[in-house]
Automatic annotation (TrEMBL):
Alphabetical list of InterPro entries matching this protein: ARM-type_fold, Nucleoporin_Nup85, TPR-like_helical_dom_sf
A single BP term in Gene Ontology: positive regulation of DNA-templated transcription
Full protein name: Nuclear pore complex protein Nup85
Superkingdom as given in the UniProt entry: Eukaryota
Keywords linked to the UniProt accession: Membrane, mRNA transport, Nuclear pore complex, Nucleus, Protein transport, Translocation, Transport
Protein's cellular compartments: Nucleus, Nuclear pore complex
Length: 300
């Protein structure tokens, strides 16, 4: 049975991740390596960990593990960077949210800016809830009539459970907290807490992973893998690597809706989610026009 990583839970986020990396590099136990790599792969789901994972060169650790003979290590090594780069790709390439934020915040009255609600929605779609809360506070200040609704939704954003290096909670404990949080979100919808504000109500539905509401914002999601990442963040944040292909395929089908066919890059991503490295290499044959976009996923 795999041992839990020997990491002091009282250190900060960066210190915790550093300790995991150090343990992985120093331990000779395959079970310990698997446990640590699984933890690091899970932390790649949380956008707030990006800077630390890059700073600690965790991607290199994942890539080095691809040459291991241990198949379990290889699977976790694939899951970690794939999710990290999908989230990174969503944040950096799907939409210019930072420039949009600068435009909105630089205006005389941000909450009245024509792109204000698009910005708030994109921030929620990308899991950047702290920034979304800050925007909602501006709406509350400008419109006292909706201040209470903004505060309640902001509290839901603040209390959403995430994988956090700062405590010793197990995956089961996290799932239990997340389920309680989800029930609270559902209760507010059932009680029509946000009925007076369709925009706030839609944000709450997004945070519940409501697929119909997510698909109503296709123009802000831009592509199926952004839809996939957002869907996982809000409907199954502890998804196991073995289930990724199912979610990827269903997300692709729902997003395209039979209106268009998958592109070559879609086939590469699907093979990667299925851990079919041979197919990924085959799809990335010389001259393939998907090599350039794929570099966004594979470059550090």
């Amino acid at each position: 049975m795999a041992q839990k990583p020997k990491v002091d839970p009282h250190v900060g986020r960066l210190g915790y991740l550093q300790a995991l990396v150090t343990e992985f590099q120093e331990t000779e136990s395959q079970d310990a390596k698997q446990q640590v790599l699984a933890n690091l792969a899970n932390f790649a789901y949380d956008p707030s960990n990006y800077q630390y994972l890059r700073q600690l060169q965790v991607l290199d650790l994942f890539l080095d593990s691809l040459s291991e003979e241990n198949e379990t290590l290889v699977k976790f090594a694939i899951a970690g960077p794939l999710l990290l780069h999908l989230l990174d790709w969503v944040r950096l390439h799907v939409c210019e949210v930072d420039s949009l934020s600068a435009d909105v915040l630089g205006s005389e009255n941000p909450s009245k800016h024509e792109s204000f609600w698009n910005l708030v929605t994109v921030l929620v779609l990308q899991g950047r809830l702290d920034e979304a809360r800050q925007m909602l506070s501006k709406e509350a200040d400008a419109n006292p009539s909706c201040a209470s609704m903004c505060r309640i939704l902001g509290d839901l954003m603040r209390t959403m459970p995430i994988l956090s290096p700062g405590n010793t909670q197990t995956l089961t404990e996290l799932e239990l907290k997340w389920q309680h949080w989800r029930e609270e979100c559902e209760r507010h919808l059932q009680d029509s807490t946000f009925a007076a504000s369709p925009r706030l109500e839609a944000l709450c539905k997004i945070m519940l992973g409501d697929e119909a509401t997510l698909l109503e914002h296709k123009e802000l999601l831009s592509n199926w893998y952004h839809f996939l990442v957002t869907r996982l963040l809000y409907s199954n944040p502890t998804v196991k690597p073995i289930d990724l292909h199912f979610y990827a395929q269903s997300s692709l089908d729902m997003f395209l809706g039979g209106e268009s066919s998958p592109e070559p890059l879609d086939n590469i991503l699907m093979a990667a989610f299925e851990f079919d490295i041979h197919q990924v290499i085959k799809e990335c044959r010389p001259g393939s026009r998907c090599l350039h976009p794929l570099s966004h996923l594979t470059s550090s």
